[in-house]
Amino acid sequence: MSETTQIRQTPLHGEHEKLGATFTDFGGWDMPLKYGSELAEHRAVREAAGIFDLSHMGEVRITGAAAAAFLDYALVAKYATMKVGKAKYGVIVNAQGYLLDDLITYRLGEEEFLIVPNASNTPAVVEALQERLQTFLTEVEPGADVRMADESADTALIAVQGPTSEAIILTALDEGADGEFGPATTSVDEDPTGTITVGQAVRELKYYAWMPVTIAGIDLVLARTGYTGEDGFELYVPNIAAVRLWETLVAAGAEHGLVPAGLAARDSLRLEAGMPLYGNELTLDTTPYDAGLGRMIGFKTKETFVARDELAALGETEPQRVLVGLVSEGRRAARAGSAIIVDGAEVGVVTSGQPSPTLGHPIALASLDRGLAVPGTEVSVDIRGKAHDFRVVELPFYKRSAN
């Protein structure tokens, strides 16, 4: 970031200051790193719930009769077959087939989608989508009905994650809001011609699905998604309503163990859940195949999409290295950039690593030579010039217990 670039603040910055947060520059945003102890915040999410400000994330709305067809062209996965009320994890690649970003896309209606890119990548994703929209409208489907709006600067995002998150959302629902909800258009397993209560709809909302709710008089999108490995929700609202929603959720969570949580806890939680972070596991030097995401490329389901030929060529050769999990019984944690050594040769590199607060030992994600990526394989990791023993394991490191 240049010296003349002003660091940005979310609409909840004042709330974080009141809570005594320690801030850090994250992708050009002044974000809360922690409020007190990041270990306590991590444990709160695993045992009860944490509330996160994610308003630095991007939001791009695609609308029109050809919205699904455009996404099928612009992104690698198939979106035309998504059901309204669902969400999909996916990636966007550049013209050479390398990862620009990973993102979540929600189908809000038959002709409406919401794309959520990572904060630091939002400008690049928006630019790529704008260029692809022009190509789509002039070369692929001339005159098609599709529009794009970057709503990132006007939208706030709050996440409530943890075992008590559902109870918190139910408590926060407006009094009287738990009336009939329907006909059901979310993933709730009900007769689509019937009606159910809002509370029941929240309880039965599936993972990677969303529904409309009203909290504190605010009509918002409630999604059962997250980045922590726990049950949880993400709530999308206009900036003007962010403080009111935050305060309402904090009050609703008081009896359910809710605590504010910063980026430090978010990072340790996602690492335990084996979830990749753009800039660490995913970069412009990474293909979907390198990240184990080649299965989402729609070669069999659609004819034309950006970088189809390039991705096909990249897929003809198995990647030299693949993403794996590493654990150690020692005390020293490997950090991003640490070399992995076998028989004196460098065979990989750690992409993320730290001690696991939940498991009590060091864990790491790493890019490792394919032939060694077998659970149980012993490797050495160079940590400040000394070799430390690690072992390849299946991901995720942590998986929450089924309800």
Automatic annotation (TrEMBL):
Ranges for domain Aminomethyltransferase C-terminal: 321-399
Gene3D superfamilies on file: Probable tRNA modification gtpase trme, domain 1
Pfam families recorded: GCV_T, GCV_T_C
Domain GCVT N-terminal, residue spans: 12-300
InterPro entries: GcvT/YgfZ/DmdA, GcvT/YgfZ_C, GcvT_bac, GcvT_C, GCVT_N, TrmE/GcvT-like
Highest taxon, organism lineage: Bacteria
Keyword terms, alphabetized: Aminotransferase, Transferase
Catalytic activity field: N(6)-[(R)-S(8)-aminomethyldihydrolipoyl]-L-lysyl-[protein] + (6S)-5,6,7,8-tetrahydrofolate = N(6)-[(R)-dihydrolipoyl]-L-lysyl-[protein] + (6R)-5,10-methylene-5,6,7,8-tetrahydrofolate + NH4(+)
Subunit structure: The glycine cleavage system is composed of four proteins: P, T, L and H.
Function comment: The glycine cleavage system catalyzes the degradation of glycine.
Name used for this protein in its record: Aminomethyltransferase
